[in-house]
Amino acid sequence: MAQDETESLAEIAPDAGMLPDDRGKRKIIELHGVTVTVKSLKFSRQHFLKIDSFTIIKDVSFYSYEGEILGLIGESGAGKSTILRCITGQWKPTSGSVSVAGIDVIHHRREAAKRFGYVPQLDIVGTYDHFTALENVYYFGKMYLSGVPDEQIRQRARELLNILGFKDALMNKKVKNLSGGERKRVSIAVGMIHDPEVLLLDEPTTGLDISLRIQVLNYLKNLNKKLGISVVIVSHDLEIAQYCSKIVLLEKGLVIEFGDPEVLINRLLPCEGRSIKLDVTELNDEVLDALREVSDIKFVIKTGRNDVKIFAEEIDRKMISRVIEICDLMNLTIKSITLDRADFTSYYRIRSKMEKDKVKQEKESQDLVS
Ligand SMILES: Nc1ncnc2c1ncn2[C@@H]1O[C@H](COP(=O)(O)OP(=O)(O)O)[C@@H](O)[C@H]1O
Ligand SMILES: [Mg+2]
């Protein structure tokens, strides 16, 4: 997968990446039909050497505009890191094209590398334990920003660490003494030191507890707002969706959904994702079944031990009365009943259930035929 490093700046169009698309916004990341197939040598049963090939990602296409936060979401093994490696140019796809800020990554890797910052999944790869947070960011700044005066690099390192919530005392602590969330923020500052146009992060919230995950995402949003940096977050965590203006859902190497999360929710769910949120004393399966039997109710999902979200064709007084009536019939005490908006987690759960039902139905009709 090693890439030919030879390239000439003269080959790159002077306005590379500056061409506005039909909506007048510049595409910062663009992948077209990207497929990665790896080949390995294996012994067959007859002990002959044979070539085995395995397609990790297939025909992957998506894009994001300048200033956007794009989330690449998929389960472990879906191919997320492989896509990131194609964007950084570490891997050359078997077919397809990849561009960063309008620069063709496959043919102009080094030029493209100036335009992105990369935050690897493991902080160990990107920082030095015995250096302080500030020294780390400054050190990488010295490496990437040749010719820039030291004081200017130090100033930028401080500014970045400040936006990422570091006060002076914390900046001067050794990285080995920082918490997981703080270390992650140092890696982010390192990825930002050369003033890239887009920041690529591989699983930035993995291994952190819920409050730290939200904190890291909030700091990323802050960077995006204050510096206008475009961001690509790769994660298996659905909660990143609320920070993203575009989502790519990846499953077994294939893009199964791509778009604005609000648009995806509106397209799939009735009432543009509005729902009735019901919190009762003792939720049981009979109530869930009774709710699902109401003809206008499309989906009922459990969101906690005693609460559910109900998605229906119409959410009006009549529907709310019907829900209350069912609870009365089942002798359930309602603690609260409110109107709610679907989040991406609800969307994903409903989508997955619909897919499973579809597969089941197809199998049943096939069994009937045979
Ligand atoms: N060099 C490789 N050779 C063969 N298979 C690989 C290689 N790298 C990754 N894979 C496989 O490709 C799949 C996707 O990997 P990856 O992109 O790391 O997934 P993710 O980041 O979504 O967890 C996994 O099944 C992984 O084992
Ligand atoms: Mg990965």
- List each distinct ligand once: adenosine-5'-diphosphate, magnesium ion
Note the overall shape. globular
Distance between the termini: 46 Å
CATH architecture of the largest domain: 3-Layer(aba) Sandwich
Which terms summarize this structure?
alpha/beta, Rossmann fold, Alpha-Beta Plaits, 2 domains, four-stranded antiparallel sheet, 12 helices, 36% helix, globular, disordered N terminus, binds magnesium ion
Give an account of the 3D structure.
It is built from twelve helices and 14 strands. Helix 4 packs across helix 5, helix 4 runs parallel beside helix 7 and helix 7 runs parallel beside helix 8. With 370 residues, the chain is α/β, with parallel strands linked by helices. Bound molecules: adenosine-5'-diphosphate and magnesium ion. Magnesium ion binds next to helix 1.
